[in-house]
Design brief:
Layout lengths: L2 H4 L2 H37 L5 H10 L3 H13 L6 H36 L6 H26 L5 H17 L1 H16 L7 E4 L2 E8 L3 E6 L4 E5 H5 L4 E2 L6 E9 L5 H16 L4 E11 L4 E9 L4 H21 L10 E3 L15 H16 L7 E3 L1
Antiparallel strand pairs: 1-2, 1-5, 2-3, 3-4, 6-8, 7-8, 9-10
């Protein structure tokens, strides 16, 4: 040890100057940081944007140890140092700044995840956690590589090794990675969220859980359906939770013997019924065509709410009002009928169970006589 240097008065003066400037710089930096943080917090209180609030939180979580390091580096600039110390100080500035930026970015990711959970928007917490972890890994990896490069370490071989290792791992777990990236796609694009009612293929139910590999759906029949995320995204998914309105089409028929004037009145009746319902908007009601057993009407209306139970209540109300209105108009709803024509020949002999034999024979004889009488070219009977 160089005891002469320790006994040198200039050395202790430089040490006192460095300590004094370090303490003063530390106090000044903390005071400025506190003032800026409080100012941003006040601005964030009256602002609708979250950027100012996040910036205030980031400044509030600035590392005091790094502030002290910055203060020491500032103080060392005021004294005369050897050349090798100047190079070391330049590396120190870069390391401290890179570490602080990484801390700010890490804190920003944490605040983003906390804000999603606090506001109730994190409907897919697994995906949010994965994204947060991946971003933080990238931040700290970039910080570490930049510090090594600044210190003169050759990171080319390290990056190449990481790339080769990543490719090998990706090939080994290709199926798992496809489901993981599908989960990330669901979390970012949000085609559906937990609680949504979806239909795809033969499955219909509510989303219960969106995991790292699979999505779990509670089917209408009660069982839980587990489907891989990648397979789910390959299908067409109907999300009924996000349906604002519901277009309803239904048909009914009246008999062919209905007069033309009353056929016109039926469409007006349907219009009056639907317009009298608050949550339904009438679209159209038309005499659609001639079917086998009925004159068919097609009715279209728009439900202004998406709730399925409200739709069923409204449809029931329309049906009951339509049933009463049709009866008041003395019009009949059609039901399936079939006409059978019997031309020529002889009717078969019919024996009715439980009837006396003599009565049954008399009935058969009467039927034969009736068939033998002259009649028109055709006869029909309604079932």
């Amino acid at each position: 040890m160089n005891w002469d240097a320790l006994l040198n008065e200039t050395f202790w003066i430089d040490v006192a100057i460095v300590l004094g400037i370090t303490i003063a710089s530390y106090l000044i930096l903390r005071t400025i940081l506190g003032i800026v943080t409080r100012r941003l917090s006040k601005l964030a209180t009256g602002s609708r944007t979250k950027f100012l609030g996040i910036a205030a939180e980031l400044l509030a979580r600035t590392s005091h140890l790094l502030i002290l390091a910055f203060s020491l580096l500032i103080a060392l600039k005021t004294v005369e140092l050897p050349a090798r110390w100047e190079s070391t100080m330049s590396h120190g500035w870069f390391i401290a700044l890179a570490f602080q930026i990484a801390l700010w970015m890490d804190t920003g990711v944490r605040l983003w995840m906390e804000s999603l959970a606090r506001d109730g928007k994190a409907r897919n917490p697994v995906t949010t956690t994965i994204i947060g972890i991946m971003i933080r890994i990238v931040v700290w990896t970039m910080m570490l590589l930049s510090i090594l490069a600044n210190l003169g370490v050759d990171i080319t071989a390290l990056i190449a090794s990481l790339g080769v290792g990543g490719i090998a791992i990706a090939l080994a777990v290709q199926t798992l990675l496809s489901d993981i990236f599908a989960s990330l796609s669901i979390g970012v694009d949000k085609p559906f969220e937990i609680g949504d009612f979806v239909v795809f293929g033969e499955v219909a139910g509510n989303i219960e859980h969106i995991g790292l590999k699979t999505t779990r759906i509670r089917a209408l029949s009660g069982e839980q359906v587990v489907v891989a995320n990648a397979d789910l995204l390959r299908q067409i998914v109907h999300n009924y939770k996000r349906m604002n309105t519901r277009r309803i089409v239904f048909q009914f028929g009246i008999t062919y013997d209905t007069p033309t004037e009353k056929v016109k009145e039926v469409a007006e009746l349907v219009k009056r019924i639907i317009e009298g319902i608050e949550v339904a908007k009438f679209d159209r009601a038309h005499f659609l065509g001639f079917d086998d057993s009925q004159l068919t009407f097609e009715v279209v209306y728009i439900m202004q709410v998406s709730d399925y139970n409200r739709y069923m209540d409204t449809q029931q109300e329309i049906n009951l009002a339509l049933l009463a209105g049709i009866r008041e108009m003395d019009v009949q709803f059609a039901f399936p009928t079939r006409s059978i024509e019997f031309i020529g020949g002889r009717l078969p002999e019919v024996t009715v169970a439980g009837m006396p034999q003599q009565r049954a024979s008399t009935s058969s004889q009467a039927a034969d006589e009736s068939a033998a009488q002259p009649r028109g070219p055709q006869s029909s009977a309604q079932e």
